[in-house]
Design a protein that fits this description.
Elements lengths: L13 H21 L3 H12 L5 H12 L2 H37 L16 H14 L4 E2 L5 E3 H4 L32 E3 L5 H9 L4 E10 L11 E12 L3 H16 L5 E8 L2 E10 L16 E10 L1 H13 L11 E9 H9 L12 H4 L4
Parallel strand pairs: 1-4
Antiparallel strand pairs: 2-3, 4-5, 5-9, 6-7, 7-8, 8-9
Helix pairs in contact: 1-2, 1-4, 5-10, 7-9
The protein binds phenylalanine.
């Protein structure tokens, strides 16, 4: 890299001028070939095209100054043509080099980026499988809002005014509702049962509905509780529906979901909107009833609440139907029904052996990938 601008050009001799320009271009061509790396190219750019000290600009300045004025115009034109050619050569060399590096970094033998196939979240899956059991029995799916009024969540479901479940301890209420009549105050639904009321107001019996959904309670989070969780609810209303229908339906549903050897048993319980009410236990599907960790060595697992629709619920539904200009259709002789409700998280935790409810909501791929 020894080229330097010559200082001994005889500007009165066209040969001497041509030789100087030819030397300049030859030196440029040698060096542009040698500038391989990004650093070398940058060094080259500064050496030749740098604003003040670059050879091209310095050459132009020094030579124009030395030239007799008669020759200035002609030499200037020549020198400019050379400068344009050098600039183009420099850019062309850069473009060729960067496509060469690109070709070198494109290795067609490397494996492609594989995108994982998505799978259902275990809660969605449990909910869908439970809904499918009832869909196969002819139940339709009904949905309702998560922000509810006191009327649908409590009043029409026969909750007495100071029932503990209405208490602000359990219910997340929407702020600034005190100016509204109590039945119109908004809250986050604490169960899927308000969809029973909405569905009965909307249409006369017969009704067979399965209602999956998200519910909210003012509960502290721990290993088995979350303030937001999911339920699957059922409602069947028709002429002459009996407690045997309820037992037969749930017994079938539990066998369809957990396996045909599972047994069910019913214990007296209480819900304001069913009478009589029952809690349902299933024989432990893991140990067959012999006793294991999952059933806490009792052989049975409590899974859902149910009962016959309380006549007070039918009365509240019909009162609202009449308010809405509809015929009463439920609080009439011969019409009866049953309802049931279960917690999705509880079932999924048991089925998949999940010890902490928080895992469902963590978004931790190591947990979720186990269900893929
Ligand atoms: N809604 C009740 C609860 O959340 C469950 C239930 C539904 C009980 C339907 C009986 C009938 O606890």
């Amino acid at each position: 890299m020894s080229y330097e601008l010559p200082s001994n050009i005889d500007f009165s001799s066209p040969e001497s001028v041509s030789k100087a320009l030819a030397d300049l271009q030859a030196a440029f061509a040698d060096e542009v070939q040698a500038a391989h790396s990004a650093d070398a190219r940058e060094h080259f750019r500064v050496r030749w095209f740098g604003d003040k000290a670059g050879l091209v600009n310095r050459g132009a300045g020094a030579w124009i100054k030395a030239i007799p004025s008669a020759e200035k115009r002609e030499f200037g034109a020549k020198f400019n043509a050379v400068k344009v050619r050098l600039t183009e050569e420099f850019q062309a060399a850069g473009a060729a080099r960067s496509s060469a590096t690109m070709a070198a970094s494109l290795d067609l033998t490397l494996p492609g980026t594989r995108r994982g196939v998505g799978v259902e979240h275990p809660l969605t899956r449990t909910m869908r499988e439970m809904v499918a059991v009832f869909a196969a029995l002819g139940y339709s799916v009904a949905l309702g809002p998560e922000v509810e009024t006191d009327f649908f969540n409590f009043e029409a479901l026969n909750f007495p005014p100071n029932h503990p479940a209405r208490d602000t301890q359990d219910t997340l209420v929407i702020a600034d509702q005190s100016s509204r009549p109590s039945r119109e105050r908004l809250l986050m639904r604490t169960h899927t049962s308000p969809v029973q009321i909405r569905s009965m107001i909307a249409g006369p019996p017969p009704l067979r509905l399965v209602i999956p959904g998200k519910v909210h309670r003012n509960d502290e989070s721990d290993a088995t509780h979350s303030p937001i969780f999911h339920q699957v609810e059922g409602l069947c209303v028709d002429r002459g529906i009996t407690f045997s229908d309820l037992k037969g339906t749930l017994d079938h549903a539990m066998k369809a979901f957990f396996g045909s050897s599972v047994k069910t048993r019913f214990f007296p319980s209480f819900f304001p909107f069913t009478e009589p009410s029952a809690d349902v236990q299933i024989s432990c599907p893991f140990c067959g009833g012999a006793g294991c960790r999952k059933c806490k060595h009792s052989g049975w697992i409590e899974l859902l609440g149910c009962g016959m629709v309380d006549p007070a619920v039918f009365a509240a539904v019909d009162a609202r139907r009449v308010e809405n200009g509809l015929e009463p259709a439920y609080d009439v002789s011969g019409i009866s029904g049953f309802a049931f409700g279960m917690g999705v998280e509880r079932i999924a935790m048991m089925k998949y052996g999940v010890g902490d409810i928080g895992q469902f909501y963590s978004g931790d791929m190591r947990f979720l990938q186990q269900f893929a």
